[in-house]
Amino acid sequence: MTGRRRPFSGAAMMPSCGRRLLLAAALAVAAGMLAPFARAEDVLHLYNWNNYISDDTLRRFEQRCGCRVRQDYYSDNEEMLAKLEAGAVGYDLLVPTGNAVESLIRRRALRPLDKARLPHLGNVKPEFANPWFDPGNRYSVPYASTVTLIGYNVEKLRSLGLPTDSWALIFEPRHLEKIRGKVTVLNSQRELMAAAMRYLGHSVQERDPTKWEEAERLILRAKPYWATFSNSTYIKDLAIGNIWVAHGYSNDMFRAREDAKAAGRPFGIGFTTPKEGAVLAVDSFVLHKSGGRPDLAHKFIDFMLEGENAADVSNLIGAGNTNAAAMPHIRPEIAAEPAIFPPPATLRQLEMLRDFDPKLRRTLSRMWTEIKVR
Amino acid sequence: MNAPGTRPTRWLVTAPPTLFLLVFFLLPALIVVLASLRQPGEFGGLAPLTGLADLGAEAYRFLLDDIVYAEIFARSFVVAGLTTLICIVLAYPLAWLIARSPQKRRDLLVLLVILPFASNFLVRIYAWIMLLGPANLLYTPAAVIVGMVYVHLPFMILPLYTNLEKHDPALLEAAQDLGASAWTRFWRVTFPLSLPGIFSGSALVFIPVLGMFAVPELLGGTGDILIGNLIKEQFLDNRDWPLGSALSILLTVLVLLLAGITAWAARRGLHGTEAVS
Lengths: 374, 277
Fold this sequence. Notes:
- By secondary structure, chain A is of the alpha/beta class.
- Chain A folds into 2 domains: 39-144 and 281-339, Periplasmic binding protein-like II (D-Maltodextrin-Binding Protein, domain 2, 3-Layer(aba) Sandwich); 146-279 and 351-373, 3-Layer(aba) Sandwich (D-Maltodextrin-Binding Protein, domain 2), CATH 3.40.190.
- Chain A has helices spanning 18-33, 55-65, 77-85, 98-106, 154-160, 168-171, 173-176, 189-199, 209-222, 233-240, 250-262, 294-305, 307-310, 312-317, 332-335, 344-347, 358-373, and strands at 43-49, 68-74, 93-94, 110-111, 140-153, 183-185, 228-229, 245-249, 269-272, 278-288, 320-321, 350-351.
- In chain A, strand 1, helix 2 (55-65) and strand 2 form a beta-alpha-beta unit.
- Chain B has helices at residues 6-37, 58-64, 67-100, 103-114, 121-132, 141-165, 169-177, 182-211, 214-219, 227-237, 241-276.
- The longest helix of chain B is centred in the last third of the chain and has 36 residues, at 241-276.
- Chain A: Residues 1-40 form the signal peptide.
């Protein structure tokens, strides 16, 4: 796959009349044809997750800076990294998850932040500042967080008397027998094996293959009870009632709950962070070296650090917020949701995924293949 | 002096396809072979090549070390074979019907066969999710076969149709005059003549099915992983290019081997029927 060349269209229009307007139009067309040589005027290029910043927020930023924001989207970190690796250029800002930030830093693909231009940096919650993937926040400013957890059909699980606060629900045959074929788990080697590791009391950053083999055995024992591996269809399936339990992301569970509510279903969707601990993902703004407008990028990051603007991501998609000043602006029922805003005790139980060396990656991939085939 | 200037003409005619094969098949294949012998990079891609010591068959050894990879290969070939067979059975009557219908309607029918290509592949697969869900077939191996057959059916119909269309009706009339029953006429005349169409259709179905990863991913259940999924996983999720390359090379070699055997058997088969008749 090759990176798409980004068209830089002439945005500035000369204030003029009649013939000069025509000339301006002709120039704009010419500028379009000469795109690779033209300099972008006040356009910020953002490479972002789909549905991660509301149009409303963007509109407010555009008004304030007198510029425009152009977005391209990706659906996972690997896709973004692969496109950048293949030579996609012209992006001022990216929104990668922790381990991808670390990868990008080590590849020297990022521009260091100029903190003098980020007066609102102090709004970041202390527990999210200075992360392991970017000590001292030299390159990244956290934006939002999600937890990988269990979502479930509240009424169904209550009537079956099953626990909803433990990974045992998706790994223990004695529970699974009651919900056979009504469970989906993520189609992701890293996420599913991480859940199994936490249930077994291991770290998700464990490097000893024998510990991972334990996780493989646990998964193989539970697999016959699962309906399928699903990365996105579980949102719909939960909201409709096709499945009763799903392993997935907190913001997706939030959406399933909203969908079920909007459709007037006779059941509700709940989601809980298992007591054994889970995976936490923190997405951050970083400046890509190929971007031509670091000035706008800094302005945008600082704008997004203001509490009112930072709150939108929680109100819109139910993501956790890494910004202390945002909290008063977040809808109370969302701010009170412990699965979206983990209390300190839970937060200590959460771990972020890290990249492994190629050898361990290969070993884990073989285990994953065995999981799929057996 | 028979046919002067044959040499240069022949060169001129065969050079472009030869060049095409060299540039777009052999060269990429060699690059993939080289990639399969190198070491994976820390962030994906390949580790920098510092010397010959960095080259090795490690990826191949890793694949042969565990029976699970052989199982996936076997399973993929079974799915591809089954898909091809079902496509032949479904496509044959249809292609025959189109070939026998009046000239005017033929173009319309062929157009109808191609029509599904007008909408996006993924949209059509999602439609199958809706259809198979209520039938309790979603997330099963059967769903994968249904999806594969659906996607590849036109590739079987079209070559069969172009073959059947060319059959001379006089042959069948002659067979009838000689007292052959309808079944004998089909089995002894139409079918042997249509073998080239079946072979090219089978190649167009069998080989792409082996590489198709979207269908098992969207319609299959917890155990439905095919060789295409495995290769895709190595490149996109696992960032292990050498292993993915090694899998691709093994697949290419197996397919070429199979094609060779089929061609050899077909030639023998044709000689066999000639000897009988």
